[in-house]
Amino acid sequence: MGYNAIYPADAIEAHRAFIARRRSLRLSEEYRTPTNDEWDACLSHFEKCKLSLGTCARAFGTSCIHEHACVRCPLLRPEPSQRDRLIEIRNNLLDRIAEAQREGWIGAVEGLEISLAGAEDKPAQHNETLKPSPTHLGCLSSARSPDAPTTPDHRTWNLAEMVRRLLRWPRGKRGLRSCPRVITDRYVNGTRLRLRRADFADGRCELKLTQKVPVLLSGAIQGLITNTYLSPAEYDVLASLPATMLSKTRFSVPPLGVDVFDGRLQGLVLGEAEFTTDEEVQAFVPPAECVAEVTDDARFAGGCLVQASRQELLGWLAEYGIRPQT
């Protein structure tokens, strides 16, 4: 067995031979030098593609099948700056159709309706050109600053929040001794942002910024949630923003996290179960001590509770047969 060393010159010659074989299969007149008239015709074609409403995408060497009735032609690519003019043309066509129908010009109506269909299609094409293309922003770094809190996952993520929310009887904090943590939420005014401080019984403190984007669906999917864990310095900066506050104590009572609310929301006890799949949602059986499920009652979401008055809360609870001591 022998070896053959391939040098760049050999590769170049092989490629040239390949091109020569391909050219031998094509008509020789395709490789002639174009005349001045042919060059002028080519340049003239693309010059004539520039129209008042946009650009004509008609191929070189083809005729205009619509006889320059451009608004009817699917090959017209409208310019975004001409949107108002297209709307004006459409409105004018509507007026002309109404006039033709009123005067009995049946033959004119048909032609005008064809033009109207084209005019109404052009703004839709314009909208397609305005749709932003997705931009890849790269992966989020999992590196954290030295003063960032120690958490199971200190990165940022965006997930579908799947929760079932349940009302419990307000029986104080007896029986709710498992892993308590005091939570103070600051709902930043005019935004969908929530700044949370969670103080654990063992002295740990968790600080995070959350954005919740609701979805118009019933059931366990509450929306998209994005969490970003913060350092104390970052938290202090964000805590200076105007916000409405809500406080509660959370207990871990598997499979629920149970929130016992304070202040004007005293008497409200909510249990929440979180899931990652639809199968888990369907398989969940609420514990016997739960009074009612309020997953689809938006009044018991944090963003609504933080705005609720004491009287409003008592009225909502009364609808479910709960009357806490006042």
Automatic annotation (TrEMBL):
It comes from the Bacteria. This is Uncharacterized protein. It comes from Streptomyces coelicolor (strain ATCC BAA-471 / A3(2) / M145).
